[in-house]
């Protein structure tokens, strides 16, 4: 690969990173736009209205946290990425699509009825996003698209975090057919994985 091609690929990687940051910002903005406004003519009515909509506000905080975690992992990895290659570009577009779908999935999960279908759709979107990011990391590692001074734990840590996130959401789907407390899997799975990793002496 000549020097000119290396430069072109580096510019493409930088542009993709900037584009991803912009899409993430839009996804988070869409989350906020979907929040219900409290209604009422008095303080008590406004507070009561806000209390009635607490599931929507909780779903917003959850989705904001999940998107923020994705962005954090993306930021940690892609600040070392210096080139595009393999399927990294295509996988990144799939990952961004799932981030943009998250506000819609958030509206779906806060609807009434059909708990398993709504819960399963939201969890499937988040699980697919986590798996896609793990595949992105695999492309970065497999095609050596990163700087030579990148600490090895960057890719390993991001892959472990996203794999755990994906597992938490995907495991919760079959559990949702047993109990409506299946969202606890989103907390318990990462806690359990973290405990196992600490026992094995891994960061």
UniProtKB/TrEMBL annotation:
Segments traversing the membrane: 12-34, 54-72, 84-105, 117-135, 155-175, 181-197
Keywords, alphabetical: Ion channel, Ion transport, Membrane, Potassium, Potassium channel, Potassium transport, Transmembrane, Transmembrane helix, Transport
The primary site where this protein sits is membrane
Which InterPro entries does its entry note?
TMEM175-like (IPR010617)
Concerning Pfam families, the annotation shows:
TMEM175
Which compartments is it annotated to reside in? Membrane
Domain of life here?
Bacteria
* Reactions accelerated catalytically: K(+)(in) = K(+)(out)
Q: Topology with regard to the membrane?
A: Multi-pass membrane protein
Similarity-based family: Belongs to the TMEM175 family.
Q: Can you say what this protein is called?
A: TMEM175 family protein
What is the organism of origin for this protein? Phytohabitans maris
């Amino acid at each position: 690969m000549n020097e000119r091609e290396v430069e072109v690929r580096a510019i493409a990687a930088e542009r993709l990173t900037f584009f991803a940051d912009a899409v993430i910002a839009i996804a988070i903005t869409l989350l906020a736009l979907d929040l219900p406004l409290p209604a009422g003519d008095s303080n008590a009515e406004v507070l009561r209205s806000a209390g009635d909509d607490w599931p929507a506000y909780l779903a917003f905080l959850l989705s904001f946290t999940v998107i923020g975690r994705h962005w954090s992992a993306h930021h940690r990895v892609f600040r070392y990425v210096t080139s595009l290659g393999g399927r990294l570009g295509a996988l990144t577009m799939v990952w961004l699509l799932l981030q943009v779908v998250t506000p819609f999935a958030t509206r779906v999960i806060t609807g009434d009825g059909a708990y398993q279908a709504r819960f399963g759709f939201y969890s499937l979107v988040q699980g697919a996003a986590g798996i896609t990011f793990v595949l992105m990391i695999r492309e970065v590692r497999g095609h050596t698209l990163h700087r030579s001074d990148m600490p090895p734990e960057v890719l390993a840590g991001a892959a472990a975090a996203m794999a755990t996130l994906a597992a938490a959401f995907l495991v919760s789907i079959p559990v949702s057919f047993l109990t409506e407390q299946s969202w606890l899997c989103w907390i318990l799975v990462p806690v359990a994985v973290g405990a196992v990793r600490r026992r094995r002496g891994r960061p």
